[in-house]
Amino acid sequence: MRVWVDLGLLALADHWKVALGGVTILVVVVVGTLLFGVLGSDTAVADLTPTTSGQPTAVPDAVSTPVPTPVAKVAPTPLPKADPTSSRKLIDPIVLLTNVNVPIHLTGSENIGSLEFVLTYDPSVLKMSGVEAGGLAQSALFDFGSRIPGRLWVGLIDSEGINGDGPIAVVSFEVVGPGTSASLLALENITTYDASSLLDILTNATSGSFTVDGRALTAPTLAFPR
To answer: Which of the listed CATH numbers 3.30.365.10, 3.30.70.600, 2.40.30.170, 2.60.40.680 matches domain 96-223?
Structure first.
């Protein structure tokens, strides 16, 4: 840059009177100064440009794929086989006992203060299991007993008097006889008294029956003629 400045000063000293020459020299000085500045700036920029280092570029590590953990297989527990004979034991009972309820009816009863009778039946066909007071004897003193199989005693007392038609007692039996068997249901030793006069009352007894096949039942009846 100093060279261009010296040349410009010499031109001005020798030709200071020539205006055109002076202008020309001034233009040359300015252009040279600008060119030198541009070239200097390019060099400085080039010097400031960072150079690529020789260090290797880092490569990311490969992602490891997880290995599944093997699961031990458990063998299914075999179910026990059903015993084909077990169902037979449940559906093949030795004896099947069925129940039958035998009502003892009164018809046409009037002011009956006391009543007792004996019901007879075949113990090889029926087995007595219980006795209950019937609808007509709900307010009466009721009792029964059986000392000998096949014979049932029943007695009752009602101070208010029993009136009307209906069951006086209900006897429960277990059926123990074979299918072709049957039993007569008879009423014996009947004693009846009036609640007011304490006199005997005449009765007519009608026997009943029970047949195992078809469970055919006819209830025994005590009738009071008027």
So the answer is: 2.60.40.680
- Looking at per-residue pLDDT, the higher value among 93 and 83 belongs to 83
Contacts of 135 (CB under 8 A, 6+ apart): 166, 167
- In DSSP terms, 186 is beta-bridged to 120
DSSP readout, 137-194? Answer: GTTSEEEEE-SSTTEEEEEEEEEEEEEEEEEEEEEEEEE-S-TT-EEEEEEEEEEEEE
- Could you tell me how many residues make up the chain? 226
Rounded Cα gap, residues 97 and 210, in angstroms: 15
The answer to whether the predicted template modeling score (pTM) of the entire model surpasses 0.70 is no
One-letter identity of residue 8: G
